[in-house]
Amino acid sequence: MHEGCSGSFEDGRQVVDKVRMMGFDRQFMPIPLDVTCGGCGEVFTMETFEGVCPSCRTVHGVTPCHAFDPDNVQAAGVDY
């Protein structure tokens, strides 16, 4: 089921599900990213491959292959 770095996702929930399935959700990223929340628009620092906006609790995810650019972070929804 692992597609390496070539996998594509339709939405943020699929990204977060993949990160959780791989066991990376609580793992620290190589470099923390300043991310604009997909829920409320606030900027927060994402340090793990799954992050939660402290302002609105929207869950965000990024796969390890794409964790170098905040544009690759996708929102999955509030308390997802």
Strand proportion, as a percent range, falls in 25-35%
How much is the radius of gyration in Å? 11 Å
Q: Describe the biggest sheet?
A: 3 strands, antiparallel
Helix content: 10-25%
Q: Indicate the low-confidence ranges by residue numbers.
A: none
Overall pLDDT level? 93
Q: Based on CA inertia axes, which overall geometry fits?
A: globular
Count of all domains: 1
The neighbouring-strand order within the major sheet is 3-4-5
Count of strand segments: 5
Distance between termini?
22 Å
Number of helices: 1
Strand pairing plus helix content: what structural class? alpha+beta
Order of helices and strands: HEEEEE
Explained architecture:
This protein is an alpha+beta fold. It has one domain. It is 14% helix and 34% strand. It is built from 1 helix and 5 strands, in the order H-E-E-E-E-E. It has one helix at 12-22; strands at residues 28-36, 43-48, 50-52, 58-61, 74-78. The strands form 2 sheets. Strands 3-4-5 form a 3-stranded antiparallel β-sheet. The chain has a two-stranded antiparallel ribbon with strand order 1-2. 28% of the residues are buried. The mean pLDDT is 93.
What features would you highlight for this structure?
single chain; 80 residues; alpha+beta; three-stranded antiparallel β-sheet; two-stranded antiparallel sheet; globular
